[in-house]
Write a structure and sequence with these properties.
642 residues; alpha/beta; Arc Repressor Mutant, subunit A; PTS-regulatory domain, PRD; 6 domains; 26 helices
């Protein structure tokens, strides 16, 4: 647990990128500030002579060697329980007749009782692998198919890799120091992606990294004479094409000749990690690869999501691409070969509404196609949704601007051209004022970009040079961002004051109660108010099981799929210290009941509310000072108003 918390601490510092106090870090990890100091000492010990975590009057922040410390920990902490567990699993996988418990305990320099505890932890890893751990006297052995054993190795490799990213050093630790060709998989991956692109595929780099891990495991097992038996049936032309590439590259880079069974299995995995055919492939050709059941299910769910959330995603090209992805996902689900996504956490915290649309789609697909979806797989759907929404953004999201530039030859025309070229994606110039004494009060655009000093002041006036400089561009972008934020938060303040229920405020959530108990406690006053019924509470719990609603390191927003409340209302709970939620910890839980008549509020509550609670200083201010509901509302409004 200590090692895991050290890694979690380092991950928080790397992701935040700024100074964090020991108290804030302690809240995030559910430990004391004193523990934080000891964790920092241990982390810095992983990189002797360097600094992984910097210390100062403002607290701690990630140092230049933080990424190295994340990767190096497994190698330097050879005696940690996690490293010992992985060593034990590798020994069990390598020995058909099992291991002698007492001899293994001596080799690992632990007592037999400690090794027995480690074997119990091994049993905990076996869920879903179709493997069993047998114990007879002093011998312990794993029983199960070769495919099941590889699935376990894959789980260990993912456990070693930070946030699911591809890490050759972590892969080497998983397979063992003597594994075949671990150093060769960097060039191997580069050539594999190049050849797949040459065949006309768009390659998902996150997915293809996962594929390389499976190929490394296969090469290591084949080198130990543990290849897969060939499966009956003819391979498709695409499978045969990819299998030929894999066989040639593995033999060239790793020196291992894969058999027919391994090539068939790996080519299937490769093809299910390919997001879509290349851009040159016609839609009809792509649709030929689709199972009608999958296309119909995706179309139905996407149309429902578009209507439920009022988002513009029901487009034919989006449905086709997502359906191809879901079909690949269906094949991965059958093999239990899930794809990791290193962007999951950032997608959830930065684009909560997009992630929520993805959860809705995932829930519908699970119901129609029977596909169990993990957070990483939901994140891939969110990437599809976000891509579609980015392409269909409305022009009215741009801020309007007026340029004030007294006329002198074509100076104002050159300035407008420079503004359009440098800032056209952020603002839209709707007027140019060439008078030296304009009526400043009558200019009603969002921004006023002026080469002369205005006679009135305000945040929307930005002084620029007649010949636009990089510093001018930065000032305009900063002002535009400030205006957008103030508008978002102003909408949030107006709506939140209507939605909070004074009697549904709880301070002091029980850290040991668990998510379901907290949801029921916060849902109870909303039921009493007649806002929701018990069924809504149960559906909120079901939604939480699909994917954690901890959208930031401090805030969880449990809610049900389906806007069936009589009115939109929010119940708030404060936890000080933080409580476990999903894979992290939170300090604020807001159970939100949405009404169908307030669909427009959904985006405001999700995106802007989450934005407020993504700022660590704001969270700490609210948590520390909000002793009752009026105090909570006062502090929240103060934070919003800046």
């Amino acid at each position: 647990m200590t090692r895991a918390r050290q890694d979690r601490l380092l991950g928080l510092l790397v992701r935040d990128g700024d100074w964090l106090t020991a108290a804030a870090l302690a809240d995030g990890l559910g430990v004391t500030p004193r523990s934080i100091r000891s964790y920092v000492t241990a982390i810095n010990a992983r990189v002797p002579g360097s600094v992984a975590v910097e210390s100062g009057p403002l607290g701690y922040r990630a140092g230049p060697e933080a990424p190295v410390a994340l990767r190096a920990g497994g190698a330097t902490d050879a005696g940690t329980p996690r490293d010992r567990l992985h060593t034990l699993v590798r020994a069990l996988l390598d020995e058909d007749d099992g291991i002698d418990v007492f001899e293994t305990a001596d080799a690992l320099h632990v007592s037999p009782a400690t090794l027995d505890a480690d074997l119990a932890r091994v049993r905990g890893l076996l869920g879903g692998t179709e493997l069993t751990l047998e114990r007879s006297a002093s011998r312990a052995r794993l029983r199960g198919t070769e495919m099941a054993q590889r699935r376990l190795l894959s789980r260990l490799a993912h456990d070693e890799m930070d946030a699911g990213s591809f890490d050759l050093e972590a892969l080497r630790r998983t397979l063992g120091e003597g594994s075949v060709g671990a150093h060769a998989f960097g060039p191997f991956k580069t050539e594999l992606v190049t050849e797949l692109n040459a065949l006309g595929y768009f390659v998902n780099e996150f997915g293809i990294a996962d594929v390389v891990m499976h190929i490394a495991i296969a090469a290591d097992r084949v080198a130990s004479h543990r290849g897969l038996d060939a499966v009956g049936g003819d391979a498709s032309p695409a499978q045969a094409e990819v299998a030929a590439i894999l066989g040639r590259l593995v033999e060239r880079h790793v020196g291992v000749q894969l058999g027919a069974g391994d090539l068939q299995h790996l080519s299937t995995i490769v093809l299910t990690r390919i997001v879509a055919p290349g851009a040159a492939a016609p839609a009809d050709h792509a649709r030929e690869r689709l199972e009608p059941e999958v296309e119909a299910a995706v179309r139905e769910v996407v149309e429902q999501a578009a209507a439920e959330f009022l988002v513009d995603i029901a487009h034919e090209d989006f449905i086709l691409r997502l359906a191809l992805h879901v079909q690949n996902l269906r094949h991965r689900a059958r093999e239990q070969a899930w794809s990791r996504n290193p962007l999951t956490r950032s997608l959830k915290s930065t684009y909560p509404m997009i992630f929520e649309v993805a959860v809705f789609i995932a829930s519908g697909l699970q119901h129609r196609l029977g596909i169990p979806l993990l957070d990483d797989e939901i994140a891939y759907i969110a990437m599809h949704v976000g891509g579609r929404l980015e392409r269909s953004r409305r022009a009215d999201q741009l801020l309007t601007a007026t340029i004030v530039c007294p006329g002198y030859y074509e100076l104002h025309e050159l300035l407008r051209s420079s503004v359009d070229r440098s800032l056209g994606q952020a603002i839209e110039v709707v007027g140019v004022e060439t008078r030296v004494d304009p009526d400043w009060a009558s200019i009603d655009t969002d921004l006023v970009l002026t080469t002369i000093d205005p006679s009135i002041s305000g945040d929307r006036f930005v002084r620029i040079q007649p010949f636009l400089t990089d510093a001018d561009v930065d000032r305009v972008q900063t002002a535009a961002a400030r205006i957008r934020r103030s508008r978002r938060l102003a909408r949030l303040r107006t709506e939140l004051e209507r939605y909070f229920v004074p009697g549904a405020f709880v301070r002091g959530l029980d850290a040991d109660a668990g998510e379901e108990a907290v949801i029921r406690r916060l849902g109870a006053p909303l039921v009493a108010e007649g806002v929701i019924d018990e069924d809504y509470v149960e559906r909120t719990i079901e939604r939480e099981r699909l994917s954690s609603t901890a959208f930031t390191d401090a805030l969880a927003v449990p809610h049900a799929l389906g806007m069936t409340a009589t009115r939109t209302a929010i119940a708030v709970g404060i936890a000080d210290p933080s409580i476990p939620w999903g894979e992290g910890r939170v300090q604020v839980v807001a159970v939100v009941a949405f009404s169908e008549s307030d669909r427009g509020a959904f985006q405001t509550v999700f995106e802007q509310f989450v934005e407020v609670f993504s700022e660590r200083d704001s969270v700490q201010r609210i948590v520390r000072r909000a002793t009752d509901f009026p105090g909570f509302l006062d502090e929240l409004v103060a934070v919003i108003d800046g």
